[in-house]
Design goal:
By secondary structure, this protein is α+β, with helices and mostly antiparallel strands. 60% of the residues lie in helices and 9% in strands. It folds into two domains: 126 residues, Tetratricopeptide repeat domain (Serine Threonine Protein Phosphatase 5, Tetratricopeptide repeat, Alpha Horseshoe), CATH 1.25.40; 112 residues, 2-Layer Sandwich (60s Ribosomal Protein L30, Chain: A), CATH 3.30.1330.60. The chain starts with a helix and ends with a strand.
Amino acid sequence: MKQWGWILILFSLLILPGSSPAIDCRLGEKYYHQAKSETDPKRRIEWLRRSLEVCPNFNAWYMLGLYYKQQGSMDKAIDAFIHAGDKAGPPRAEALALARKGELLAQTGKLPQALRALELARRFHPEPAPQWLEKSLKDTRIQSYRTIMSAGDIASYLESETQISNNGRFAIRPALNLPVQFDFDRADLNGKGMRQIAELGEALTRPKMTQWRFLLVGHTDKRGSVAYNQILSEKRANTVKIELKGRFPSLIGKLETEGRGEFELLYDGDSEVDHMLNRRVKVTLIH
């Protein structure tokens, strides 16, 4: 009997000092709902921080990110959405956190990082994706098209690890839709296209890339016949390959090409912007 008494005493000492996770999270949920009822932004944030102290959870991190965004505290908002993504359960929640992060990265001028986050969010989110996500992704693609992506940004994009969703259902390898520009209805690179290829070559010849090979996939818009667009997309991918090999001989034997014509449109609309975004070369790593 004495032995059992000591066991019970030891057991009580182990469980009494702290509350159980379930109790902590019920308290965290109470603080979360208190935050939702507040009208004062500072009080909202205070209650959310309390919620996260007792039970780190997706809802509180996500709402905290939205409130920081409203206040213009971009770095704090991005950090909150990163934590929300870590705590997300279903792919939809993970996608929303990624998309909010990408939205803010775009607003702060970090276009390659924004594009990566938004494209991943679009892939993770079940259909239909919310309109604000679609708009943010399209706006970021337009901004990216109007600039020359630097070698450093291209390398950072391609060197990122395969992204696996929290539930393990999605595994997305790094791939970059590069807005390489050609003369209209031709496979010849224009001046801006040549400058973009130079940056691409600098990225693909960096030391970390030496063990990889690359697939260059040409895409067209939907104007013209299917057969014509297929041939044009193949020619454009091959043009990029020839230009890269001529400027960067170390890439010889490491480049493969495909043409997908109009079969993988980013946008099915008929505006000039839609056509512009659909004309691209996709760069994918081949291990």
